[in-house]
Amino acid sequence: MTDGESLEYKCVEQVIKKILETQPASTGLQDIVDVLYEGFEKYSWVGIYLVRGGVLVLGPWRGTQATEHTTIPLGKGVCGAAAKTGKTERVDDVSKDKRYLSCFLSTRSEIVVPIKKSTVVIGEIDIDSDTPAAFDSNDTVFLEKVADMLAQHI
Ligand code: SME
Q: Which of 21, 45, 65, 104 is most enclosed, with most CB atoms within 10 A?
């Protein structure tokens, strides 16, 4: 990671912190999705799913297209896998992952980060990229930090 990239993660983290300090989750979540989408060119689609009645329900999202997967059962797709295990899923090549539920033809890689209150998954951050293997451990560490911040506000 270059110093510039590391600064970018830190800046976006600070902006998200500020949003959470000044806004209720009801309006803040959309702003956070917007900040993530606008902050990183490789983040082609950003959404937050929330667990409601045992399924993942799409909340705020930002991208060029809407997804047809607005509800996903736990255990289905990459999103459902992350929600079931509580572990971050990073898929470098979505065409090679049998669990992958296709939303956009342009997507090449995906990261899904659970939002947990203690060990209970209450939602997740889902990001698609049009770039192959767009996500690395820096994204994982950064997004897990964002998910922790979100968990305190949802
Ligand atoms: N690809 C996800 C479905 C959600 S869309 O990417 C927005 C999955 O495999 O669960």
A: 45
